[in-house]
Amino acid sequence: MDKAGKTYTARFAWAMIAYGLVLTASVLILKSNPDPDAPWRIPVALAPMIPAMFGMMAFVRYMGSMDELQRRIQLEAIAFGFGGTAALTFGYGFLEGVGFPPINWTFIFPMMIGLWGIGVAIAGRRYQ
User: Fold this and answer.
1) How far apart are CA 40 and CA 37, in angstroms?
2) Spatial separation of the C-alpha atoms in residues 93 and 116, rounded to whole Å
3) What is the pLDDT of residues 14-48, one digit of tens each?
4) pLDDT at 127 over 90
5) CB-side exposure of 103: number of CA atoms within 13 Å?
6) How far is 43 from 56, CA to CA, in rounded Å?
């Protein structure tokens, strides 16, 4: 792994560790006070987004340090993840119209990440 990859891995790992800690604290705090009208619940619920944004910024910086081939692979993989998620969620929306249960929005991002990973494998093989 090159220097940029090591830097990205370290930054992303720290962001995800912070995300896990903040998410755990957020859930525990929200469960300890069941008052749904408390105004502080909104920022506490959104607090995990702060370290998640640092993870995203680490990835964007890493993309800027990649060579052209790696950028192309990542672009194709992201397009696959984005397009695949769009098609799957759009199609499932029609199924909800005929009685399927609504999908929880928190599953959309993991689906996109999973499809992006598949896209990296596909695009990476093509350029070997």
Assistant:
1) 9
2) 21
3) 999 999 999 999 999 999 987 888 999 999 999 99
4) no
5) 18
6) 20
